[in-house]
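Question thread 4412

I'm putting together a teaching handout and wanted feedback from people who do this every day. The idea is simple: show students a protein as raw sequence, then show them the structure tokens that encode its fold, then repeat with a second protein so they can compare. Below is the first pair exactly as I plan to print it.
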Amino acid sequence: MLMLGAAVGGCAEQSDKGPSGSSAKHTKSHREPEDKPDSRVVEDDDDHTVLELSDGRQVSLRFTRRGLEAQHRDASDDAWSARKTVYETGTKPCHGIRAKAYRDTVWLAAGFGDSCRDGEEPQEVIAAVATGDLSSWTTDPAKSHTTWPKAHIRDGGTRVDFVDSSWVYTTTLTWRKGSGFAEAVTEYKPIHSWYVGRWRATDGSQQLTFHQVEPGRWARVVIESLTGPRCKGSAIVTGTNQYNLSMTNFKLDQGTKTVNCPPDVLRYEFDVQSSDGPLRLRKIGNHPKTVLTYERVG
């Protein structure tokens, strides 16, 4: 991972709009109202969870050799319903089943992996929802290696958002009553506008072009040599302020990799001091040394 740091400038320089015309704002997303879960967990271990709803009904969720199964019973009935398969798989389960409910809407998240209980990441991740008489479950196996960490209930129990959020992206998987699960949507956080645009090395050796995030796409940087052997490629860049940016997953598109195309991610970093630059490539260490300086050209 290559760290791109913007040196701290004066307060007057901390603008969200750079000379390139980029107007990407770093605003907090609007928080939609949520319904607070009203269930309680009455039994819980690595393989089994029993949830009690606000009306007294109980839901039993259990890992088996066949996957994940569910049963339910009324508040006044000692008899459990027949077992219902929520998710069928031969993969071993991870630790625990996370489940909550609001009124008659119950949701859960669980993971499966051959070595999951030995500390490995899950290979299969599911989110599931049941509502009404709890006789059927709607399940969406997500192509993810991280179990959904959060779920938010909205619209009186008719919508559940499963959310996986980090400092650079938020992925949301939404279930709605009547239509089930929609395709998961990932929103990437924009990079600071100081970086957006085209930069040319003052020695004429290469050019960098930073592109802002687009719907469903990371921000990217294109690195292109201007002298010597041909090298052109791109990488993902992520960051949430003007003081640091990370570069990963460089992909060579033309030519061959050369010196600083891309820079060694463990030995170099970028920094920019103000909204109009300059941008510098610096060698990391006790005595940082500027290797290349770039001027904004677009």
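The second pair follows. I'd like the answer to focus on this one:
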Amino acid sequence: MSTVERAYELARFGGCCTVDDIRRMLTAERYASVQAHLSGPSIRRDLLALCKAVRAASDLDAA
């Protein structure tokens, strides 16, 4: 799985709340060039939107 694919997976299912959380997880999992792969504004915006959507859905489930 590529760095970007794993980043999206973490955003959807990995319990990450921020792009920094995703970066930390990828680094811990020894993915290469994490900063370079996640430095573009579009990917950061997409990942953050996914994290927020997952968090909002889990908040609704908890209510």
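Top answer:
Good format. For the second protein you could add a caption like this: The longest helix spans residues 41-62. Helices lie at 3-13, 19-28, 34-37, 41-62.
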